[in-house]
Amino acid sequence: MTSSAHKHHHHLQNPYGTTAAPPPTPSAQPNLLSTSEAADALSCLLHRLPPTLSLSLPTRRSSPPTTTPLISLSDTPETLQSNLLSASSKLGFFQLTNHSIPSQLAESAESDALSLFNLSHDEKQLHFPKNWPLGYDNAADDDDDEEESTSSGESLFCLDSTCFSESTELNLTSLREFTAQMEKLGLELVEELSCAFGFDNPARQDPTKVCSLMWISEGNSSDDRPALSGRMYPYVVGLQYQIRCQKYSMLTDSGWTSASPNLESVLVTLGDIAQVWSNGKIKKVRGRPIPNLAGANNSRCVLLTLFITLPMDSTVSPLLPKLDGGNGDESNAEDDDNSAKEERIFNPFSLEDYAWRIYHERLHSKDPLVRYRV
């Protein structure tokens, strides 16, 4: 079954050819990790701590609740671009309205997702074998526990754009259609962002330069500030359809903030790849928005998040056309002498190395992009 999964997911293949990926090798790129040896040593130590151990992070001063900007796809191109520039450069998130995704489809997709969590632990692993980042992942399995548990972390499925499963018995028709429509919307947003901020959109010339992942997670929260145990993965934009009114907490570049998107809108978060592509002009949200379930009648939460991201073998770097080479690169001789060149603030880095690190460290107290700043 694993070889079948590899064949079906060629753009996200595990380069190590096994279901359990080994630790990443150090990056061969110069001057990227020279100042981070101590941080890496601490990270390795933390990986060996029992998963049930709660890490107490320093108390952070949260930002006050922020009104979530509302952006309509029916606005004129000029208005849409202006609103995207404002929300993306100031906050890193907004809610999208007047999109084409029907609420009935979103509700049906949620039902399909709930059926996955009703499977037994063995069935989840059988139908969705782990082929990182794809497949079923339960944090309790990292410690070789015999029984499934959500106390030590969330349980999630990571699926590609086809929502492929080893089983032909599962009916995921609505989930597949919903994923396809969310992917289309996400790619449209990436193009709009590239026009607004002036960076090159890799998918414009070659659609295989980007891909999408559907993350389906289940967790519980018992207080107003959610636990910092969720898995993270690098992305350009993240999209969550609002089936019901719900409050979220998000860790942005400015600290913790909350958002309460409108019913049937799509909550859009901008990720670390978008920030690098724009050379720091776009603010980001670290990881996924976390629903606040305190006081809710049903504490069970299933969250569907569509990520527009990159194939595993990609290199992430600023994509603005008029950047100073910075590392000895030659400037484009055809550029106007009067055209001001922008200084590069991020070094290029391997997506695979970066994705593995932030997925497994689960430490949100430090911006993971710091080590790649020039």
From TrEMBL:
Pfam families: DIOX_N. Gene3D superfamilies: B-lactam Antibiotic, Isopenicillin N Synthase, Chain. It comes from the Eukaryota. InterPro entries: DIOX_N (IPR026992), IPNS-like_sf (IPR027443). Residues 1-32, 54-74, 319-342 are annotated as: Disordered. GO terms for molecular function: 2-oxoglutarate-dependent dioxygenase activity; metal ion binding. Residues 1-12 have a biased composition (Basic residues). Keywords: Iron, Metal-binding. Residues 69-143 form the Non-haem dioxygenase N-terminal domain. This is Non-haem dioxygenase N-terminal domain-containing protein. It comes from Cinchona calisaya.
